[in-house]
Amino acid sequence: MNASAAKPESRDKPWLFRTYAGHSTAAASNALYKTNLAKGQTGLSVAFDLPTQTGYDSDHPLSKGEVGKVGVPISHLGDMETLFTQIPLDQMNTSMTINATAPWLLALYIACAEKQGLPRDSLSGTTQNDLIKEYLSRGTYIFPPRQSMRLITDVIAFTYTEIPKWNPMNVCSYHLQEAGATPVQELAYALATAIAVLDSLKTAGQVPDKDFARVVGRISFFVNAGVRFVTELCKMRAFTRLWDEICRERYGVEEEKYRRFRYGVQVNSLGLTEQQPENNVYRILLEMMAVVLSKDARARAVQLPAWNEAMGLPRAWDQQWSLRLQQIVAFETDLLEYGDIFNGSVVIEAKVEELMQEAREELARIEEMGGAVAAVESSYMKGKLVESAARRFRDIESGDLTVIGVNKHTETELSPLTSGGDGGYMKIDDKAEAEQISRLKEWREKRDQQQVKKSLEDLQAAAREGKNIMESSIACAHAGVTTGEWGQALREIFGEYRAPTGVGRASAVSNDINSLTEIRQKLDQVSAKLGRRAKILVGKPGLDGHSNGAEQIAVRARDAGFEVVYEGIRLTPAQIVNAALEEDVHIVGLSILSGSHGPLVTEVISRLKVAGLPDIPVVVGGIIPPEDAAALLKAGVAAIYTPKDYDLTSILADIVTILDSTASRTQSKDTAF
């Protein structure tokens, strides 16, 4: 009998059970956390709203419509204390999905713990703190890449002495897969990021050589698991081996415990469908199994999306359902009673080796360019992700990639899960933003303004002089500095950055070109009516950095023959309207996935009218509930597309038809005069 397959005398400990949560206000999120912990959740995973993630206060113009939508707004220490009321931080393992403002949110967390009377070294948890993937996929960066690397290393150098149980960086390939990454790209780009950070840490000299292995041991990863079960399982085994290889060969780490690939996971949200959303339950289960079945590459923490996240925010019951799924697998099955059940499998071993070899080759290409930062600045990695995402969209459209309920077996009964009065998801109360802004103003009025001024000056001095910014950030937290003030202080030193979109580098796919022949012909006719080539502006208003859909529309529109204006993420409605005016576009397409479509879209339409462009049609894409869609159409939106509209060619055909109608009306007006 194989000893490794024998049933042990005791069960392994299960992974940390998390749910990714936060919404509306710190008080509402605190209530949700305490409810989930009472249900058996064993770790917290905090979702912050977009203003918090991008270093703005809730009352900043760019924050309009975004406050409390995709996470909890944390503007100052008072909000952080409210968020963790009656939650002893020394007994909690807290994961914070925060990147550009990671030093600041960690400073607030430490200050909050100190207000609870807790020593720093009692804290355990994780700050994601991975800026490279933000330039490639999620878009919540603030500063240029090299300045961001400086802040990452500051956090790492600070935590390994002050908070030794803290994971200062969670190299995050999760969002790379959401942006289109293949398994090989996910492996290579995540490992290239970790290499770039560790190399930067060595160069910075903040960590003595004798402590470097210990610091390497605190680097963790946060990965994605898609529905291609066998491939994803093999990807995780490849991750563990490649990381061990890099730690040994590149950094000379001898202790096995410091080379261990420690990772948490959230399974794939990209594959969740608005059509027949109940099917998502099975997808989530299969995706989770890929990261818990293989003991030698088992996740340390798991958080699962809810079945309804392609429709809107999950309710407390929906999150409970996902938590129960984890608990059933961990406690009711015999999974944790055995060794690794895949050791010795010829099929698994061959796939792991194939992934490792291809990932090594891609890592070598990135190394030749000068590493991950150079590959970001040149838009190499971003362009590759846009290409991969384009292939996925094309394969779903053609049927080469089957998605049940979307392009196969689309017939369905009415779901009782979605037929309730709330539509099957949670809607954020619009009053939450105004109430958060009111509390923020009250906080500013009550604090010691001189202390705020002094602490911000000290922060800027540390940044300017190359000193570690963590102690000065913690001092700012205690002084009452706000998130926007901290962000602005560092913007003045480091500047801001706009990452390459990757759209220009993305190669056209021949199959896409062939499928667009009819649209190109019709667009030629419409352009003739317009008197010049039809031009579309693809805009991302607000702080939502998930640009995948916008990029794919921009690429496909370009291939169909449109002139395309796409300036990337994080634009105000005023900037979008100004671009429409300056570029003299014929149609505006807006992409918003953060739930802020109501105020942002209506403001764009209003500003177009004020700018003398009332006849330019506006189309909108995003996670938009039916009642919101009806309100937007009433406000003047020409068409709305949600995740169920997966066929980009059909969307473009629709846009050309809308443009044709607009051109015909314009011709009629000209004739009348």
Instruction: Determine the number of helices (DSSP H or I, runs of at least 4 residues).
Output: 27
What is the structural class?
A: alpha/beta
Q: Helical amount among residues, as a percent range?
A: 40-55%
Q: Unreliable stretches, pLDDT < 50, 5 or more residues?
A: none
- The number of E-state strands comes to 15
Strand ordering within the main sheet: 1-10-9-8-7
Structural description of this entry:
With 673 residues, this protein is of the alpha/beta class. 52% of the residues lie in helices and 9% in strands. The chain is built from 27 helices and 15 strands. The protein has a five-stranded parallel beta sheet. Helix 12 links the parallel strand 9 (263-266) and strand 10 (301-303). Helix 4 (102-115) packs across helix 19 (470-479), helix 10 runs parallel beside helix 12 and helix 10 (229-249) packs across helix 14. It starts with 15 loop residues before the first strand and ends with a helix. 51% of the residues are buried. The mean pLDDT is 93.
